[in-house]
Amino acid sequence: NARHERMHRSLKASMSHDNIFTTLAEQQAWFIRWREEFNNERPHEAHNGKTPGSCWTPSARQWDGKVPEVSYPEGSTLRLVGIKGDICLGGRLFVSAALRGEYVRFVEVDDGLDVILFDRLILAYYDRSERRIIRID
Predict the structure, then answer these.
(1) What is the DSSP string of 32-93?
(2) Is the CB of residue 128 less than 8 Å from the CB of residue 134?
(3) pLDDT tens figures, 9-39
(4) 84 closest CA partner among 72, 71, 76, 95
(5) How far apart are CA 113 and CA 98, in angstroms?
(6) CA 20 to 30 Å from 74, out of 41, 82, 103, 104?
(7) Is residue 70 part of a domain?
């Protein structure tokens, strides 16, 4: 979203002001200070002059870190997502590291073209003739 993109532009602009770090610890300390200022000290136009920290509230929903179990129709073409987020289809193809250890489903949608699904979520398409994944923008 636009606010997120604006934050990245601000971070990039701040980083490019002759900041030279000799260690990762120095860089991390700088980033922690920058984040504190960005979120809790500097007012933002997008928040009507408030700081992001004053507008943020934690979600009431808790996530246990477990992906819900997905069941696919019998006879579905499934592929197991590997530890690096890839699947094997005559070669290794990256799908998503977030789905490691999960199955994704392939459904033919056109001659030589499959949709790759996790549950009902479309992840990408697979061009069988080119043996490549087509990302969704």
Answers:
(1) HHHHHHHHHTS-BGGGTTB-HHHH----S----SPPPP----TT-EEEE--TTSEEESSSEE
(2) no
(3) 888 888 877 778 899 999 999 999 999 999 9
(4) 95
(5) 24
(6) 82
(7) no
Instruction: Choose among 65, 76, 70: nearest CA to 118.
Output: 70
**Domain hosting residue 23, numbered range:** 2-55
Helix (H, G, I), strand (E, B) or coil at 26: helix
Same domain for 86 and 128? yes
DSSP for residue 19: -
In this prediction, residue 1 carries a pLDDT of: 62
Q: Is the dihedral of CA 115, 136, 120, 86 positive or negative?
A: positive
Structure tokens at 34: 């920058």
Run of H or E including 133: strand 132-135
Dist. CA 41–CA 62, nearest whole Å: 28
Q: For residue 1, give the 3-state DSSP assignment.
A: coil
Residue whose tokens read 């000290």: 41
Residue 63 domain flag: no
